[in-house]
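An instance noted here:
***
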Amino acid sequence: MPQPTDADRIALAEAWIDQDPDPQTRDECSAIVERVRAGDAAASADLADRFDARLEFGTAGLRGEIAAGPNRMNRVLVSQAAAGLAAYLLERAAGVRPSVVVGYDGRRNSQVFARDIAEVMAGAGVRAMLLPRLLPTPVLAFAVRHLDTTAGVMVTASHNPPNDNGMKVYLGGPHHGSQIVAPADAEIEAHILRVAASARVPELPRGDVETASESVVDAYIAATAAVASAPAAQPRAVYTAMHGVGWETMARVLETAGYDVPALVAEQIAPDPAFPTVAFPNPEEPGAMDLSFEAARAAGAELVIANDPDADRLAVAIPDESAPAGYRRLSGNEVGLLLGWQVAEQVTADRGPGGADGSLACSIVSSPGLEAVARAHGLDFVATLTGFKWISRAPGLVFGFEEALGYLVNPSTVRDKDGISAGIAFLGLAARLKAEGRTIADRLDEFVERFGCYDSTQVSIRVTDLSRIGEIMARLRAEPPVSVGGVRVERIEDLAGGFGALPPSDVLRIVLEGGGRVMVRPSGTEPKLKVYIDASSTEGTVAERRAAASAVVARLEQGMRELVA
């Protein structure tokens, strides 16, 4: 196929400008076209990047930088995606009018995109409802089930950089409000491409949109507060919303459950799409929780609770005298193992004669320690591909997590990660321990003593050229390592063609002598290659187990950095 010329791209850009309802992106695109006509090489490269490709609608929906062109997030792309999703739902309607509920967070253009989505879908014949105001992603996931809609759409880019936005799609009915998985993603994408090729955005009919009742939010708050009501002893806590939408809902849940109001990180408590106090609005990023630690020191806090901007993730920190800030953020694996253990104990305690079925689930890149917890409590264990679109579908699910700060503690109401219900569950755990005269640090020691030490770390290779990720994956497949950091490789499992019950995925699992494990995969949402490293030890004292597992993880990390350099 011949390479497009500047003239080809200018024609595409002018057609785009002609259908774009947003004056800002119209002007932006027009300015680039004028610079290309003037011979500006940088503008030519910019136009090629915007128009030689298109943001693909995948299992994470759409996500990208807000800007003009089909390879960016904008009102044209969002309207086409809404029309394509409506066509998909109508195709499967079987004579019943499909319905959709749409939510949005506090990011730039979130409300505008949400209104476009709802109006275009209504114009296509789908009953469309908007949530009453900006709200956390878990409320939208809850609303799909509570309102019994055919689908749900959340406009958010979660913890991506400030100028990004996106849309996540959920399916109701037999999917129970989980995010879409294959083949639905490809089928929706086919409808979107047909719309883009056959209709201009101004020609897409728009319809009337309903506003969902506040009772939806009330029902979410009641269900979430029931996860862990407050005992008499409560830990002193600090909370940050990371400039997102979590606090209003979290505050109502805390009040309903009987918890004291935590000390707040005032600078980060209100929604702000510029995220002015952090480089990246992600609690995992270095420096993102510095203000939380400052507030915790001032309050003498025993616990720090942080949500990401759309409140579907949870970060937790505890006092640690050895840490420079006086507090240490727990890894996603540590929080997941503690919450999973707590759920396993509850399920075990609630069993009647003959026992009860249930499963603990986590993604394949998350800690294998959850399987040890499941075994010890007579529960099933399910390892899934990364993402809650898979975790939420585990049969008999009672708890699920992934190491990227995602936890599903309330599967009867929300089939997605939920940083608010997870925060309440963790507060409940900390309160119970305090009543017993113990701390979260004590509980971590108890876990190591009972199940062994499961240590982990992650290496992220951020790239500017996405082809670099493909090159590294191809090299690892063509020249598989015989050892990593001096530890012998027992086998390498390539999940590209599927593995066991797992669907195909671009993942390499390197199993090492002594039980260590390395997982390598491209990120699904960022320009990164991600390497996940795990090792465990069940020999000796708690301190000896930690030292042994940590030493292996350090060797594997150094070895993988050399392999993917």
Summary: The domain at 333-450 is CATH 3.40.120.10 (Alpha-D-Glucose-1,6-Bisphosphate; Chain A, domain 3). The chain has a mean pLDDT of 95. The two ends are 34 Å apart (CA to CA). The first helix runs from residue 6 to 19.
